[in-house]
Amino acid sequence: MPGVSDITWVKLSPAVLRALIDGDLAGASELAGAPLSPYLVEEHWLWRIRLEQIEGDPASADWIARAAVVDGRVVGHGGFHGPPDEGGVVEVAYSVDPAFRRRGHAKAMLRSLLERADADPAVTAVRASIRPDNVGSKATIAGFGFRKIGEQWDPEDGLEHVFLRPAAR
Question: What is the reported pTM?
Answer without folding.
Answer: 0.91
